[in-house]
Structures are given as C-alpha cells and as structure tokens.
C-alpha cells in the first residue's frame, strides 16, 4: 500500500504553522550559541531603529495632531476642551500609538527583511554561508529578530512623545493651552499602569514583525518573483499578528484590571 504524504492530508495553513514552530525552535536554539554576532546586531539596530525614526516620528506627530483636530470641536460642544490633552495622551499611549506604529513598522521593516533574506535565498548566498561553515540562522535571523524586539518599543515611545507634541500644536490652533499646562494635563492623566502594558505589548509586536519577516524571507521559493512574494506576505502576516496580539493584550489588560 502506498504511503500518503502528510502534505496531502494537512491543509496548507496547518503545514505553515508547523514550519513556523520549527523555525521558532531553530531561532531559540541559536540565541545562546557561542560566537554571537554582536556587530551584526548593532548594525541591524541601526538599520531597523535609527533609519525608521523619520517615518515613525512623522506618523506619531500627525496621529496626535489629527486626533486633536477631530476632538476639539466635539469637546467644545460639551464644554470639555480642558480634557483634550488627557484624552489624547491616554488614547495614544495606551492603545492607538503602539498599534499604528507597529503596523507602520510591519510595512517598512518586515517587508525589507523579507525581501533581503528572500533575495539572499534566491541568489544562494544562504547556501554559500552554510557550505563555508557559517551559521546563517545566527547571523541573519537571530540578530534581526532581537533588533526588532529592542527597537520597536523605543520607536513607539518616541512616536508617543511626538504625538503629544502634535496634539499640543493641534489644540493651540485656536489658542487653548500653554505648553506647560498642556503637558501637565497630559501627564497628570497617565498612570504607570497605562504605560507598562503598552510597552510590554510593543515588545511582542517587535518580535512578531522580526520573526515573520525572517521566516518569510528565509523560506522563500526559487525564482526572482519569490522575493516580491516573500516581502508582500511578510507585511500581511506581520500586520495580522500585530492585530491579533493587540486583541489578546487588550483582553488580558481588562481581565487584570477587574481582578
């Protein structure tokens, strides 16, 4: 009797999940191996973090500016303009800021990692590293995932601060607040319990972005068109994971807040 391959029994998405679990195990085993590439990690932190400051900063500033412009007319109707700084600070730092910045990073970082590793796969550079005795997982994958995990939270904090600056500019188009009064009201409304969950979930966002980008690029197919496919699927998958992780984090935060 002919043996039946598991690929004919399992759906493609289940097989893909299994491959990702195996890839996760390979990543975990290579973190603590000797000969860690510290120079490559620093280089990736520069590429992923420093070179994303402009895009992330503009996104955060416009986010706070637009939120304020949209909120002030409604708050005026209720005589609650003084609550605008608190509303912007809580909304941006607790929920909107981390998600928007993570989605922005998914489009920029995950796609670039997927395309870079995909092109290396197509041109057989990864195979050449294996033949030469190098560890491509440790050099290419581990460094990029750790860099994303470190840089995305820092980029989010920067964007949150610039969003408050955009909110200050938006609220002062009509001359409502001084600089000191605005930031006093914004920071007075925040608590440590608002900042901590948002920072923790951005760590998971960064890990997901780096992991998905590396997985899609490292396992891309042969042919030049597979590079574009890897970059596109990395963006879609990373964005989906950000939304799923945010939903889980919101549910956990709600449960912990009421217990």
Structural notes for this entry:
With 259 residues, the chain is mostly helical. It has one domain. It is 82% helix and 0% strand. The radius of gyration is 22 Å and the shape is elongated. The N terminus is likely disordered.
Describe the protein's topology.
Blueprint: H1 6-9, H2 12-31, H3 38-48, H4 53-77, H5 84-122, H6 125-131, H7 136-171, H8 179-188, H9 192-218, H10 225-257
Helix pairs in contact: 2-7, 3-7, 4-5, 4-7, 5-7, 5-8, 5-9, 5-10, 7-9, 9-10
Please give the number of β-strands.
0
- Radius of gyration (Å): 22 Å
Question: Which structural class fits the helix and strand makeup?
Answer: mainly alpha
What order do the SSEs take from the amino end to the carboxyl end, as H and E? HHHHHHHHHH
The global form is: elongated
| Number of individual domains | 1
Low-confidence stretches: 1-7
- Tell me the major beta sheet: none
Q: What share of residues is helical?
A: over 70%
Number of helices: 10
User: What is the end-to-end distance?
Assistant: 58 Å
Strand percentage lies at: under 5%
Mean pLDDT: 88
Outline of the structure:
The chain is mainly α and 259 residues long.
Structure keywords:
259 residues, mainly alpha
């Amino acid at each position: 009797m002919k043996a039946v391959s598991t690929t004919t029994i399992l759906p493609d998405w289940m097989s893909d999940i299994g491959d990702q679990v195996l890839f996760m195990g390979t990543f975990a085993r290579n973190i603590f191996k000797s000969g860690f590439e510290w120079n490559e990690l620093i280089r990736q932190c520069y590429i992923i973090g420093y070179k994303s400051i402009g895009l992330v900063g503009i996104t955060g500033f416009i986010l706070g500016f637009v939120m304020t412009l949209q909120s002030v007319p409604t708050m005026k109707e209720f005589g609650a303009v003084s609550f605008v700084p608190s509303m912007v600070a809580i909304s941006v730092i607790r929920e909107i800021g981390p998600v928007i910045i993570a989605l922005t990073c998914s489009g920029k970082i995950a796609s670039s990692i997927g395309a870079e590793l995909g092109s290396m796969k197509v041109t057989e550079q990864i195979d050449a590293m294996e033949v030469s005795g190098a560890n491509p997982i440790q050099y290419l994958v581990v460094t990029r995932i750790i860099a994303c995990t470190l840089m995305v939270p820092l980029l989010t904090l920067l964007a949150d601060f610039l969003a408050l600056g955009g909110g200050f500019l938006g609220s002062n188009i009509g001359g409502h607040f001084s600089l000191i009064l605005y930031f006093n009201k914004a920071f007075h409304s925040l608590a440590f319990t608002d900042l901590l969950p948002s920072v923790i979930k951005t760590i998971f966002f960064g890990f997901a972005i780096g992991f998905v980008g590396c997985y899609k690029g490292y396992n891309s197919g042969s042919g030049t068109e597979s590079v574009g496919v890897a970059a596109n699927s990395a963006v879609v998958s990373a964005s989906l994971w950000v939304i799923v992780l945010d939903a889980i984090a919101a549910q956990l935060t709600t449960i912990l807040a009421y217990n």
